[in-house]
Amino acid sequence: MPDSPPDTPMDVIRALIADSGMGTGTIADQRATMEALLGSGPAPAGVAVEPTTIAGRPAEWLTPDGAGPDRALLYLHGGGYCIGSINTHRDLAGRIAVASGMRVVNLDYRLAPEHPFPAAPDDATAAYRALLAQGLAPERLAIAGDSAGGGLTLATLVALRDAGDPLPATAVLLSPWTDLTATSSTWTTRADVDHLVQREGLDAMAAAYLDGRATTDPGASPRFADLHGLPPLLVQVGDAEVLLDDSVHLRDDAIAAGVPVTLDIWDDMVHVFQAFPPELLPQAGESLATIGAWLIGHTSP
User: Fold this and answer.
1) pTM
2) With pLDDT > 90 as the criterion, what percentage of the chain qualifies?
3) Which of 6-20, 57-71, 184-198 is the most confident on average?
4) What is the strand order of the sheet 233-238 is part of?
5) Residue ranges per domain, the chain?
6) Residues annotated as part of the active site
7) What CATH number is given for 9-299 in this structure?
């Protein structure tokens, strides 16, 4: 009998996801699981961590070696608006800091169900305004986020535009959750290959976050927002995730609104694949290099 082919990095990652318990249990269970798996990790080598408070919320500055004081990135973590923290996303945010050479503010915005919409965008917009108040120029600022944090990034840009605030130079969205209706075709066509995002769990988080509001409310579900006037967007998503269409529709809507947008679809990659160690998944390192170059190109003089 011939030997079985060796496991690919994605085979290993899918096995890790299946064994992790992520995506199952109550919101409290999922919070505990994510914190247990990811919450105790340090920042990447060469990144200094400085706890702080910004706009009344806990946060931390992640400063890579050699970073100047004039550029900064506001990072909004994922977790369905209900789980995740600055602890669980310190490594990913720190690796973006290294790739871009930018200081990163890793923000602990309020979570549902204790703090439903609009608590999260209120915290994100307040944090961005606090950075402006510190003297940072908008053309040297960026916002980024993954999953729900990617949707929150888009919602924050729209809220800032509507309020007349100066917008950041750019934004980066990783596997963004922009459509809380969960009606796009990839919820069906990618269901068999996406082992991380499950409809039942995400629907429960959407209900907790919306707290009775419509799933089409553009402030919470920016798939339905007017995108005109937003800064250039970099969107990255895996081909093997049910939220693929959220990124495809975002690309199409941005183009229709005249917003510069680049959409990178990564073959066979899972939800927020950038969070996995590049030593295990080379595509994560390649993606982060692309993100770093994008941020440098859009926020440097």
Assistant:
1) 0.94
2) 84
3) 57-71
4) 47-54, 57-64, 103-107, 72-76, 141-146, 170-174, 233-238, 261-266
5) 9-299
6) 147, 241, 271
7) 3.40.50.1820
